[in-house]
Amino acid sequence: MPDRPLPSDPMIRALISQARAAQISRRGVLAGAGALSLMGFLAACTGRVGGSDSTGGSALTAPEDLSSSVKTLTWANWSFYLDEDDDGNHPTLQAFEDQTGITVNYDVAIDDNNTYFAKVRDQLALGQGIGADTVCLTDWMANIWIASGYTQAFDKAKMPNVYANLNPSLMNPSFDPGRANSVPWQSGFAGLAWNTEKLPNGLASVEDLWNPDLKGRVGVLSEMRDTIGLIMLSQGVDISSDSWGDTEFQNAIDVFAQQVSDGQIRNIKGNSYADDLINEDTLAAIVWSGDITAINAEVGYDKFGFALPDSGGTLWSDNFMIPIGSQQKTNV
Questions:
Q1: Is residue 234 within 8 Å of residue 311, measured between CB atoms?
Q2: Sign of the C-alpha dihedral, residues 28, 32, 38, 41?
Q3: Is the dihedral of CA 207, 209, 214, 218 positive or negative?
Q4: Complete domains list, the chain, with CATH
Q5: pLDDT digits (tens, 9 = 90+) for 222-244
Q6: Which three-class secondary structure state does DSSP give residue 56?
């Protein structure tokens, strides 16, 4: 089926064009994120994109490791992703620094996978430093980095607890068998969140987001693998299977585009969607589960509810990686 004309709204055009131009297939875009259906947990990983680097040329070479003389590293991560006390400190990170003597610059630099990659891809392609010695990115983006030669391998001998205790189901993803170049940081689900004070009855389905009472107060993720994935699930599509194609994909795009055009959807964001919930710019949203736990802990009570839609949700895992240009491999 040929692509339908793009909507006139520039934001929607950009997001749909991004989805259409993805380096992996539409089926891979969604199945690669994983799916949780009423029949249980189903996950599939996208395949490797191939090549020793982004240009198909010779493999990139990591620079000299300065870990023995420079005891400082930078960790790029998402917001609401590390324990934080009332003073804004990170107790777990401080304990690590005290134990190792390594200073960690914790940089909340990632709002979504695409925008972060866009900032650093040119340096990665040249094997240069990107201002971070370790990053946490989602499976499908980890696939791109590893297959393109943009990461350094971990020294397994220095991390025996990781490989001894890692859940076996996470040990051999297709994009990194044996976890040579990635280590899972956290996993969770994309689902629905709502302000429990404003919506005491909660949400049960994606369709609940389209309730006229919520017009202009709904947020969705700029991570289209999750937003479009949840919409497709709500339309009865098994996104973990090979039984769907362009028609089903486009049907979900049409719903998304219509809800934006009608003003039902207020914001389309990465991790900064959490600020909109906290500030009550939005009252309901498609979200990542871990953020809601962290936000509730921050406000001190369960202000926000979270649930998987009755049609199912998507599973994500974010992974530590060492960028090819880092000179802190051993310290990482």
A1: yes
A2: positive
A3: negative
A4: 72-186+318-323 (3.40.190.10), 188-317 (3.40.190.10)
A5: 988 899 999 999 999 998 888 88
A6: coil
